Amino acid sequence: MRQARLRAIALGTAIAAALPATAWAQPRAGAAATSGPKPLSQTLTGEAKAAYDAGKLLAGDGDYAAAAIKFKAAYDLSSDARLLWNIAACEKAQRHYAHTMALVRQYLDTGKELLTEADRREAKALLDAIESFTVRMTIAVSEAGADVFVDDERVGTAPLVGPVTVDIGQRRITAKKAGFKDATQQLQVGGSTTASVELKLEQDVHQGHLTVRTQADGRISIDGAAVGKGTFEGPLKSGGHTLRVEADGMRAYQSEVTLADDEKRSIDVPLEKIYAPPPAIDLGPSFEIGANGGTGVKLHGDNPWMTVARLDVGLRLGWAANLGLFAEYAALDASGQCGTDTHPSSPSNPLDLGVRVSFRSCTYLKAGLQLVVHFLPAHAVDPWIAVEPAARLALYDYSTFDPLTGATARSSPGLPTFDVGGRLGVDWHPVRAFRPWAIGLFGSLVYTPIADESPAHNAGNTAAAPPGASSGSVPLEHYFSVVFGLRSSLAF
C-alpha cells in the first residue's frame, strides 16, 4: 500500500518518461494483460487517436498544460475514462490538486470494467496522498442564484450544495449576480482542512450625487420637476439630466448634466440680468464733438517725444460715418534737436565751427479734415478707422551761437508742413441709456511727405555743419510720427 501511494505521488514527474513509450492507462503484465481491456493506443482511432498521441508527446516534453488539452480532446471524442487519469496526471504536474482529485474521482466513477483493481488502488492512493494539499471550503452567498467563482473558475450557483475543494494557498472567491455589485474576497487557505467564507452582494444602484448652487431666489428644476430654490443637493440616477435655473429679471440657465455611477458633482450657476435695450437711437444726421489726448514720437532727427491734444467736430451721417474738422496742438521734447536737421548745441568734433542751435521750446499747430467710418455703430463696443489730411505749422523757440564771431541770436520761425494721417480706434458706450457718450482708445500713424526741418540755417560756416544746415541748401524731408492716446466724444 505504501509503495502504491509513493507511486501516485511521483506520478507527475514520471509522466514524461511513461507516456511516450506506452499508454498511461495500460493493462498490467501477466494474466491481467491478456484478459483486461485493450490499450488506448489500440482502442482509439481517428482524431481521438491523433489527439492522444499529441498529448503524449507534449507531456514527454514537459508541456503539461497543452498535454491536458489534447488528452481532454481525445476524451471528448472517445469517452474513454482512462484518459481522465492522463488528464489528472497533467493537472497534478501543474500542482492543480483540486482539479486532480475531481478528475480522479470521475475516473473511478466512470471507469467501471476498464479499470483493474490495481488501477483503483493506485487512484485511491493518489487521492489520499494529495488530499492534504487541498481544503474543503464552504462558501455562503447572501443572494440565491449568484454565480460563484474561485480564481475566476465557476464552481456553481448559490446556494452551493456543499463545500468546494480548492488548492491551498491564496484564493480569490467571487460572487456575481445581475443587478448586484460583484463581491470578492481574498483568502489564504491551508492552515486547516476546512475553510469558510461569506460573500454579501450589494444591490447595484446606478446613481450619482448632484449639488447645484445659484442666487437665493433662483428656482431650480431637474428634468422639468422643481427641486428647490437657491440650492439643491441630492442623488440622481446615472445618465443625462436637464438642469434649468430661473429667477425674475434674469436670463434663464439651462444645461445638460451627465452623471456617472457614484459620481459627486457640484455646479455653480451665476444668472445674468436680462438685457434691456436702450432707447431707440435717431440714426439721422447729428453733430459729434470729441476731445483727444495722447503721446507719441516724431520719427526724425533725434526722435523726440510729443504730447498731443486735439479737438474735433463733425457731422455724423447715420452714425456710420463722421465727416468733420479737427485742430491739434503738440509740444515736443526740447532737450535735443526737436527732430530737426539743425546743428546741435555742442560741437561734434574739435574743428566743428558750425553755428550751434539750442532749443527752448518746440510746438506745432495742425488743422485738417477727418473722415471716420464706424464698423459697429449700434453696439456698445464700436471699432472705427479714420483718414486725416492736414496742414501743420511748426513753431521753434531757439538760440544760435557762432563760434567764430561769438555772436548769439534768438529766433522763432514758423515752418509749414503737410501731413496725411491714418487712425484706428475703438469706442465704448459705458451707459446704455445714454448712447451718445463714448470713450475709447486710438492709435495714429502720420506721414509727412514734405517738411522743412532746418529752422536755423548756417550763415556760411559750413565746414562742420551737418547736412541740410547750410544757407545754400534747404532739403525737404519726409518721415512718420506715431501717436497713441484716449478719446472721448459726445453726439447731439
Description:
By secondary structure, the chain is an alpha+beta fold. It folds into 3 domains: 2-132, Serine Threonine Protein Phosphatase 5, Tetratricopeptide repeat; 207-273, Sandwich (Immunoglobulin-like), CATH 2.60.40.10; 286-491, Porin (Beta Barrel), CATH 2.40.160. It is built from 9 helices and 27 strands. The chain has helices at residues 2-9, 11-21, 31-35, 40-43, 46-60, 64-78, 82-93, 97-111, 117-130, and strands at residues 134-141, 147-150, 153-157, 164-167, 169-176, 180-181, 183-189, 194-199, 202-203, 207-213, 219-222, 225-229, 231-237, 239-246, 250-251, 253-259, 264-268, 272-273, 286-299, 305-317, 321-332, 356-374, 381-401, 408-411, 414-428, 437-452, 476-491. Strands 19-20-21-22-23-25-26-27 form an 8-stranded antiparallel barrel. The protein has a 4-stranded antiparallel β-sheet with strand order 3-2-5-7, with no helix packed on it. The longest helix has 15 residues, at 46-60.
Shape: elongated
Q: From the 3D structure, determine the CATH topology of the largest domain.
A: Porin
Q: Point out poorly predicted stretches.
A: 1-34, 459-472
The number of E-state strands comes to 27
- The largest sheet has its strands arranged as 19-20-21-22-23-25-26-27
Q: What is the CA-based Rg, rounded?
A: 52 Å
CATH architecture classification of the largest domain = Beta Barrel
Structural class label: alpha+beta
Beta-strand portion reads over 45%
Helix content: 10-25%
